[in-house]
Amino acid sequence: MNENSGFSVRGLGWLIAVGVVAFVGTIVLTLFGDELSIISSAGTNTASKSAIGHKAFVELLRRNDIDVFVSRSYKTNTGGKNRLLLLAEPPTDWRPDMAALFAAERVLIVLPKWIGFADPSARGFVATVSLQQKARVEAVLKRIAPEATISREEPTTSDCDTSDMPAVSIDKPQLMSLVGKVVCPSGNLLSFAKANGRGTIWILSDPDVMNNHGLDNGDNAAFMLAAIRRLLPDGGTVVVDETIHGLAVDANPWTALLAFPALLVTLQGAMAIAVLFWAASARFGAPAREEVVATPFASDTPPLVANGARLLVSAGHGGAILRRYARMTRQAAVRHLHPPAGLKGRLLIEWLDRVAARRGVSVSLTTLLDEVADAADTPKPEPRRILRVARRLYRWKEEMTDGSRSR
Fold first, then answer.
1. pLDDT digits (tens, 9 = 90+) for 267-320
2. Neighbours of 188 (CB within 10 A)
3. Most CB within 10 Å of its CB: which of 82, 89, 101, 359?
4. What b-and-e string marks burial along 381-401, b requiring 16 or more CB atoms within 10 Å of the CB?
5. Are 104 and 83 in contact (CB under 8 A)?
6. 261 preceded by cis ω (within 30°)?
7. How far apart are CA 169 and CA 167, in angstroms?
8. Could you tell me whether strands 175-178 and 181-183 are parallel, antiparallel, or unpaired per DSSP bridges?
9. DSSP 107
């Protein structure tokens, strides 16, 4: 490659390597983008596939045509008209903003129950789980309902507050007591309203009816579907707040472009821009003047090319080469300009001359062909003369295809 091509052989190799890596990266993101875009977690959130996670619950709602929005931004984790804000198993040190909760109008809070310990050999799963301390769970409950308590004892039928909800199946149930009344597994949705009566908060005491492990036990899935449909207005959206689990992301789009996996696209775009400037850098500035060429072959011409050119010139083939170059130059202009069909020979040359005049090209093709004929018909023409005419042909083609520099 010459110095004006914009790329060296080594540079072209790097470009091919970068292109291959970008292509492979695109395939990987296409196949595994969903897994890569979610933070790996074995906790109590919608990204978790573990026994205590909520991934299956979100999929259950979507399969039953219930609109679900998983919010990882503080700006979008609010409820509103036709929305149900879901806070599933907040951490035990959670400090709720009650004013914000009631501004959401409809809120469902699922109390925490389990602590999971991630399995180092299985990404996204837990190795063991243990019950949260009852006092810590009760502390979360009392921040919402100060008069309520937690019970982990099996209730008797006489203790139960019956409900028309589907019966659930829970191992070691975690129940709520409100003023001495136990809210049983089949009715463990507690509803109450605060002073202004605008917002309503429901509490689900036991997450085992909705987590991945318990959702398919008995009628747990039917219970959760019935509960969500009862609390959600027609055509509404369930907004799952994941900021409480530390999965918040910056809503700023510029920050998002620098976070994985969007960072890969950003880097690929930056490399494409860099390659564009690299390729164009050799084409800036005015073209070299004819006087710069002091000899028929520049000193930095590759030896093989220079030696081959000298052999052709010494053998008297310079004129033939110039005629062929003139023919190739004319064909290049014709391919670019698309003259009327059927124009050949002299008619085609006259059409090109008219186009050149309209475009302000400095010289006509007829003049150049006369110069070619004069130089080629001269016995053993001087190499400098051959090169000079060839350069004028090249300049004519550039002005015909790219426009005159004088305009």
1. 777 877 877 777 666 555 555 554 444 445 455 555 655 555 555 555 566 778
2. 25
3. 89
4. bebebbbebbebbebbbbbbe
5. yes
6. yes
7. 7
8. antiparallel
9. E
